[in-house]
């Protein structure tokens, strides 16, 4: 139990660091957000009076550490501030945009696993045959493919030529197919290679040989004995890939014009809407740290060789 | 490649070619393919502007969105500019900034790793906490925020991607240094009173060079993808600069009538990333043929 507590404690420290980092980055860079935002809102250069009012209202005149402390205090009570553009409460914005991104990330992981598991197992079982080489080449292509280009290829093929899927937007299952394939492919490539190498390694373990020598069919050996152990690092990798998925989601959401956290962040970055940027990065940071923590704990649960209560690290 | 050259006695090409690492690479067909692709692209980046038949920014509005033809092998874009010419000029920018970003990452990472590993104590502790924090956040999202806040430009793109990406170099170097510190030859050198700087340069650096070169090669592909991705979002090179991601981004408004505007730069990016990935995989196998644990980790390196 102490291990779990220690992991949670260190995750909290890291998360605190993440908020300091993003807050510092946003607020210590040169340029006055008040002017940018007001010029944008009013369509002309703002006069000094409005700028002063805006700065006072947003607390921009305080020293940055004080601003940060205020922000952190509010954030801990669930108040993430308001968008500079009067688009409302940051928390409401996050809640409104989150479901589309979760949907996309979840569907992409499904796509990735659905491709990688069979492809990796077949690659390992038929090691060094043409089917293995083909699968490795395809994985490498998947790794090297910029997801924004893949997205447009799918739009050209699946939406414009075939007319099967809607091009842009979100909401229905049909809207989800092309973005999920786009985002899932890169991860599928990573996972295929990992399933293959992990299974190959496991197939050489003595206990797998023992199963073989008991006369079990190779298929049974692979499925019942080797796969379970071989999939352990895959579980970890799915967790570790979350960062790539979240980063990729930004681009994919822009390509398919899906309203989600990614499009929210990109718009906020271009508009210098600091409270929104801060809110999205906080949410991404919390999610990432939490998933890493859960992955670590799940791994320890699944792997009989590690005991959680025991020696710890 | 400096490590390969240094070890290939006196830097003569024949000696270099017979170096064990290079020989192992030559026996690996996919690594050779990767090396050929990388070398070709590098060459094109250097001589591209000489080869290019047109001015990359010359607009011919009467000749817009023309499909591939003899005069324009890759067609023309929405302003009538020759796409092939722009791709050739773009190689220099896209590949140039990727190399630059990787070099900055490597420099920061190696420096931090050396200091942390060699000094130990609170210095090490502090630096590694910084690494933890940076690793606790998806790099590309952080780079997006940094580049956006600093303002969209190529310089800020380089800065943003360099700042978020040096941590893996630091970790590798630090753990190598910790291991090396205990080796007799390093300890002996320390005991003879050699200054710290010399011990690091003479004994430690040459021994961490291998893994660092492998990491950098594998990292390069990911950097090309990340830089093109951010440029695609509008945070890197600005039009009319013929950067590949930017070209793809402006081409997307003509998907229906001119799909070559996204496909040509897309294909160029894939080639560059594929080449560096193949070469990186080959280098890793050549330098450390027995290392199997890295096989899972490699993929983490190539896509962040």
Automatic annotation (TrEMBL), chain A:
Bilayer-spanning residue ranges: 7-26, 104-126, 138-160, 172-191, 230-256, 276-295
Membrane-topology descriptor: Multi-pass membrane protein
Keywords noted in UniProt: Cell membrane, Ion transport, Membrane, Nickel, Transmembrane, Transmembrane helix, Transport
Native organism: Natronolimnohabitans innermongolicus JCM 12255
InterPro entries linked: BPD_transp_1_N, MetI-like, MetI-like_sf, Opp2B
Pfam families, alphabetized: BPD_transp_1, BPD_transp_1_N
Occurrences of domain ABC transmembrane type-1 (ranges): 98-295
Name assigned to this protein: Dipeptide/oligopeptide/nickel ABC transporter permease
Family matches, as CDD domains: TM_PBP2
Cell location: Cell membrane
Family as reported in the entry's similarity comment: Belongs to the binding-protein-dependent transport system permease family. OppBC subfamily.
Record GO terms (molecular function): nickel cation transmembrane transporter activity
NCBIfam families, alphabetized: Opp2B
Gene Ontology CC, one term: plasma membrane
Cited PANTHER family: DIPEPTIDE TRANSPORT SYSTEM PERMEASE PROTEIN DPPB-RELATED
Gene3D superfamilies: MetI-like (1.10.3720.10)
Keyword Plastid carried by entry: no
Domain of life where this protein originates: Archaea
Main location: membrane
UniProtKB/TrEMBL annotation, chain B:
Main localization (coarse): membrane
InterPro entries referenced in this protein's UniProt entry, alphabetically: ABC_transport_permease (IPR053385), BP-dependent_transpt_permease (IPR050366), MetI-like (IPR000515), MetI-like_sf (IPR035906), OppC_N (IPR025966)
PROSITE patterns from the UniProt entry: ABC_TM1
Protein name (record): Binding-protein-dependent transport systems inner membrane component
Keyword Cell membrane: yes
Organism field: Natronolimnohabitans innermongolicus JCM 12255
Pfam families named among the record's database cross-references: BPD_transp_1, OppC_N
Domain ABC transmembrane type-1: from-to ranges: 91-280
